[in-house]
């Protein structure tokens, strides 16, 4: 019986020694390789503009803010002068509408009035291009999205 216990202890000791063997070091990484940066984050609700890039629609301090991004999701100045938004809120029968105007930094369009929650509805967006001198802005792009924040 003693021999059996001694053999069992020796086997257990050998097993634990092999389990605690030092791990092999991974090959050193090539330091010259560039680390991939995660793609930039679009603030708010992301809307694709196809080849023109992206838009990010968010509600800031109760007002709509529509920001513009290039194809690599980096902020850019907008080529649009105005946006018209229309939606059917849950708290009334009629549609609500708001016009967004260009902000001071030129990278976004903002609304002058507060938008009541809940912020979950089908949103119709019309973007207007910079007009020729003496002309009215003309509708350039239209989007319909299921907006929810």
SSE layout:
Layout: H1 2-19, E1 45-48, E2 54-60, E3 63-69, E4 80-87, E5 96-102, E6 108-110, E7 120-129, E8 139-148
Antiparallel strand pairs: 1-2, 2-3, 3-6, 4-5, 4-7, 5-6, 7-8
Key phrases:
Immunoglobulin-like, 149 residues, single chain, 8 strands, mainly beta, eight-stranded antiparallel sheet, elongated
Walk me through what this model shows:
The structure is a single chain. The chain is mainly beta. The chain has a domain at 45-148: Sandwich (Immunoglobulin-like), CATH 2.60.40. It is 12% helix and 38% strand. The protein contains 1 helix and 8 strands, in the order H-E-E-E-E-E-E-E-E. It has one helix at 2-19; strands at 45-48, 54-60, 63-69, 80-87, 96-102, 108-110, 120-129, 139-148. An 8-stranded antiparallel sheet has the order 1-2-3-6-5-4-7-8, with no helix packed on it. The chain is elongated. The mean pLDDT is 83.
């Amino acid at each position: 019986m003693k021999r059996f216990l001694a053999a069992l202890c020796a086997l257990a000791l050998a097993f634990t020694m092999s389990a605690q063997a030092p791990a092999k070091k991974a090959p050193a990484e090539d330091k010259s390789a560039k680390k991939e940066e995660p793609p930039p984050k679009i603030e708010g609700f992301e809307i694709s503009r196809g080849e023109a890039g992206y838009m990010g629609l968010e509600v800031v301090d109760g007002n709509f803010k529509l920001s513009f991004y290039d194809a690599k999701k980096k902020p850019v100045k907008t080529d649009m002068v105005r946006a018209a938004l229309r939606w059917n809120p849950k708290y009334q029968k009629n549609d609500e509408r708001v016009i967004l105007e260009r902000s001071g930094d030129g990278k976004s369009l903002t609304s002058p009035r507060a938008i009541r929650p809940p912020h979950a509805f089908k949103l119709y967006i019309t973007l207007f291009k910079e007009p020729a001198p003496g002309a009215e802005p003309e509708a350039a792009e239209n989007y319909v999205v299921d907006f929810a924040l």
